[in-house]
Amino acid sequence: MGCNPLRSAGVLWAFLLMVFLAGCAGQEVRPPEEAVKSDPEKAANFAKEGRKAFEEGRKGAAVQAWQKAVELDPTNAVTVNNLALVLKDQYRFTEAVRLLETGIAHSPEVAELHFNLAVIAELYLLDLETALEHYNRYRELSKAEDQEVSGWIADLERRLE
Fold it and tell me: What is the mean pLDDT of residues 136-154?
């Protein structure tokens, strides 16, 4: 049985056509999105809008406004904290933790960010090591001795032994 060169060429062309078509069906290649430019003034307006929406009981609108505010100014620890707490109330714990971590990266001396990260990590994500780390940091940053937090720290240390 001999090799038919026309048939081999046809198979080769069919293979090349399939490879070409498979490449066309792949995911679209897009240029990277441009980073949002910081705009503290616009961010402050969105933060106010979020606070008003929250006070009116419109948590969805508050989240949207605060997300825009944080995108434009991630250094505003109050807005980051408010948004993280609403996300927690919506059972979006991982998102809240990531947001608090971003807030801490920009404002590492804000005790409340550490406290709320510790609470969410311990109670909702069961990440005891992260909770202990941030309760300790909260205790270092807060001036008053908080007996309740000290008890939580002692409990976590026992549980992690």
Answer: 93
